[in-house]
Design goal:
Number of helices: 17
Number of domains: 2
InterPro entries: DUF4192
Protein name: DUF4192 family protein
Largest sheet: 6 strands, mixed
Shape: elongated
Number of strands: 6
Helix content: 40-55%
Structural class: alpha/beta
Distance between the termini: 15 Å
Pfam families: DUF4192
């Protein structure tokens, strides 16, 4: 985030960390990175035990080294172990390990803090009481209340955890009922089961108009022009259930209509090739098919694959992604159980594209709980388990452009 906020003391800084992160950390190791006096990133990892401290420090430092111009850090450990247990400051093991490794890597460690259920403290405070410093210093800090309107609004909208950075709406009975009726009237993607109600199809065409075209629908939603109608949300859920369209929707929401059109065209070409393969005589060798020109399909497909895997420095449009996630959150919250897996995959990937790995993981876990054998959900689960951030998280934004990864976990 680019909002300027100032902390005059350690407890003021701790009051601001949730605002910087966008959520209230718990059982977490949070590392705030600086370029000079400006915060450039907030990294989060589950608070490790002592056996994994070095591995987690290595992972965090590997990420920090890839962020341009970071020169200093402040790690903060949030844990459940209280002060006053007779073994010193809680979570000192991970702070000491990370601070030592960071200094060896050339970073300035401005402070190293811990927040426990009954107090807080700095690793650099030689006079830290056994019971820690009182939490009320953080709670009563004026660093947030006397900050700019933007900061106070951010503080008022904090998520409860990193996993909640993408909010799923509470269901509305009337909206959920209409969505169910529409989905029940649509044919399943594989042509089996569910309905094939021409009245429902006619309704969608009449209400959505040209937005029955996935490319137009996604563009309308990403541009913040969606109407949130039952028809729009149901059609979005239905499209997200179709793998080639789902993948194209993800890319278009993040990178715009040109990439979206490429992705939809690629999906259609793939469908035509598969149809041709199914129609080929069993005795005909696949090698007898007409050869493709050098680079045909591969170059476009390779480009799209790199975007999907985050192996590109092209940055997503943050506003488009946020607008899409907001609508997806409403659709998912009002979708029947068993009919939202595809939308959860789309939302999970978009969250990851913003650097919100914990939120992405939570969404994909929901998808797998709903459909354990879902191919895309399984792939995303294994991919997210690697803990990789997209390359665009480490590229320089264009002047005036918002960061593609306000926060990374």
């Amino acid at each position: 985030m680019t909002t300027i906020i100032r902390a005059g003391a350690a407890h003021d800084f701790l009051a601001l960390v949730p605002v910087l992160a966008g959520y209230r950390p718990a059982r977490s190791l949070v590392c705030v990175a600086f370029e000079g006096n400006r915060t450039t990133a907030v990294l989060r990892h589950d608070l490790p035990d002592a056996d994994r401290a070095d591995a987690v420090a290595t992972a965090l430092l590997g990420t920090l080294c890839r962020i341009p111009r970071v020169d200093a850090i402040v790690p903060v450990a949030y844990g459940d172990r209280p002060f006053g247990q007779g073994d010193g400051m809680p979570n000192r093991y991970i702070l000491d390990c990370l601070a030592r490794r960071a200094e060896e890597a050339g970073f300035v460690v401005r402070d190293a803090l811990t927040v426990a259920p009954n107090g807080w403290g700095s690793m650099f405070d030689d006079d830290l009481p056994d019971e820690g410093m009182p939490l009320r210093l953080i709670e009563e800090s004026a660093a947030v209340s006397e900050a700019s309107t933007e900061v106070t609004e951010l503080a008022a909208g904090l998520a409860d955890s990193a996993a909640d950075l993408v909010r799923i709406a509470e269901p509305d009975d009337a909206l959920a009922g209409r969505i169910r009726v529409i989905l029940d009237g649509l044919p399943a993607p594989d042509g089996r089961g569910r309905g094939d109600d021409e009245t429902v199809v006619d309704l969608l065409e009449r209400v959505l108009g040209e937005a029955v075209d996935p490319l137009i629908l996604v563009e309308r939603i990403a541009a913040g022009r969606g109407d949130g109608s039952p028809e729009e949300l149901a059609w979005l859920l239905a499209l997200a259930d179709q793998p080639p369209i789902r993948d194209a929707m993800m890319l278009q929401a993040a990178f715009g209509p040109v990439v979206g059109e490429l992705a939809f065209d690629s999906a259609e070409d793939d469908r035509l090739r598969r149809d041709a393969d199914r129609g080929r005589d069993a005795s005909e060798s696949p090698d007898s098919a007409p050869p493709r020109a050098p680079g045909e399909h591969e170059s476009v497909d390779g480009f799209l694959s790199r975007l999907m895997l985050g192996r590109s420095t092209i940055r997503p449009d943050v506003d488009r992604v946020r607008a899409s996630l907001e609508v997806l959150g409403t659709a998912i919250g009002n979708a029947p159980i068993g009919r939202r897996t595809g939308a959860l995959c789309v939302a999970g990937w978009l969250a990851w594209a913003l650097g919100r790995g914990s939120a992405a993981g939570a969404l994909i876990d929901l998808a797998l709980d709903e459909t354990p054998e879902h191919t895309m959900a399984g792939l995303l689960h294994r991919f997210l388990a690697l803990g990789e951030l997209p390359e665009w998280a480490f590229s320089e934004p264009l002047p005036g452009a918002p960061s593609a990864t306000d926060r990374a976990e």
